[in-house]
Amino acid sequence: MKLGDWTVRAVREVSYRVTEVVDLLAPGNDALAEAARCSPGSRRLVLVDENVLSLRGEEIRAYFTDRRVVPVVVGVPGGEATKTLRWVEKIGLAADSAGLDRRDPIVAVGGGVLTDVAGLAASLYRRGTPYVRVPTTLIGQVDAAVGAKTGINLHGGKNRLGSYHPADHTLLDRGFLATLPQRHVANGLAEIVKMAVIRDAVLFGLLDAEVEDLARIRLSGETGQRVMHRAITGMLAELEVNLWEHDLRRVVDFGHTISPAVEMAADPVLLHGEAVSIDMALSCVLAAGRGLLGHADTARVLTLLRRAGLPVWNPVCDLGFLWSAVEDSVRHRGGRQSIPLPSGIGTCVFVDDVTEDELRVCVSELHRLAGTEAGIPA
Ligand SMILES: NC(=O)c1ccc[n+]([C@@H]2O[C@H](COP(=O)([O-])OP(=O)(O)OC[C@H]3O[C@@H](n4cnc5c(N)ncnc54)[C@H](O)[C@@H]3O)[C@@H](O)[C@H]2O)c1
């Protein structure tokens, strides 16, 4: 017998902005100062990726001091090794030492690692502090820093601890990409190829026409902007209708079924987008095996990935490992496989019935294709 029974309902409305700008750190550009709500005499905790700090540190400091704002700059190393609770704690301690008010935004300038860790720290600090993201890698600009998810790794699991805490404002400046190593450009291109394959045939065509040039010039120029614009528009449209992931069938999970396990296990280390690329290649072979994606289109995707400088295979990909990765993904997706597979370029379906035998056939087919010069099915 119940003596009391209460239900509390509240709706948390969220809105956040993503803005593309040029010359973000130019003295006359107010975009960052406005986003970070800088007023003369205030202090701001500014977390900066260590590589970006050595390249742009002086400009970053000057940007704030010119506005009579004290930047408390903390360098944070890039790379997965930083996605730890230790770094979340360090950021919390830095926020305390900086003497931040509860509503003072933290500024996070760096790649997906920094924005993921900073976002989690911001979501925990005083149970939720605003922050501003300035992504400086391609994967950050098209993916990691435009959504709501934050995270760190735990016990060998990707993003095992995390939260949904979008930045109030994300400012994208492609100028940061000028210093990005080529491998990290390819890493970001993987997430753009993902959007193209599952929902945007026009984007696929743009990539297919000149992916090598786009990579070489780091998406500067007009086509680069079109590509970024389409990729981000598509991503935000997918996220907006399902920001809290109540629906676990997400087309943006294309390439993210076995990739978390591959990313954590590969030796030498694979980048996030590289693991996603291998997953996309395998998904395309699965789709081809089911007659969802034609062999010519499968070849186009695999070839595009390679042209972008991405791998389609890794020695870690043995059947036992990949099947346990699928099982882990099922746990992550609430008990169903919900694997997005392309059903043509620009569209996608979900499947729940991939068997270990089917995976065996596809893994060996992908291995065969990966060994051929262009990865093109016969
Ligand atoms: N939250 C999400 O929705 C989401 C989505 C996709 C990826 N991610 C996460 O993003 C992470 C990968 O992000 P990443 O590839 O940006 O990694 P990263 O932050 O480690 O950056 C990659 C490297 O580039 C360097 N760097 C950053 N900006 C630079 C610049 N402008 N010039 C020169 N060097 C620069 C960094 O120091 C680092 O060495 C993964 O942990 C992944 O899980 C998150």
TrEMBL record:
Domain 3-dehydroquinate synthase N-terminal: 75-186
EC number, as in UniProt: 4.2.3.152
Stored SUPFAM superfamilies: Dehydroquinate synthase-like
Catalysed reaction equations from the record: D-sedoheptulose 7-phosphate = 2-epi-5-epi-valiolone + phosphate
UniProt cofactor(s): Co(2+); NAD(+)
The keyword Lyase is annotated on this UniProt entry: yes
CDD domains: EEVS
Domain 3-dehydroquinate synthase C-terminal: 188-314
Gene3D superfamilies: 3.40.50.1970, Dehydroquinate synthase-like - alpha domain
Domain of life: Bacteria
Claim: Phosphoprotein is one of the keywords in the record: no
Pfam families documented for this protein: DHQ_synthase, DHQS_C
A single BP term in Gene Ontology: antibiotic biosynthetic process
Keywords associated with the record: Cobalt, Lyase, Metal-binding, NAD, Nucleotide-binding
A GO molecular function held by the record: 3-dehydroquinate synthase activity
Enzyme class per UniProt: lyase
Protein name: 2-epi-5-epi-valiolone synthase
Naturally occurring in which organism (per UniProt): Lentzea aerocolonigenes (Lechevalieria aerocolonigenes)
Taxon lineage: Bacteria, Bacillati, Actinomycetota, Actinomycetes, Pseudonocardiales
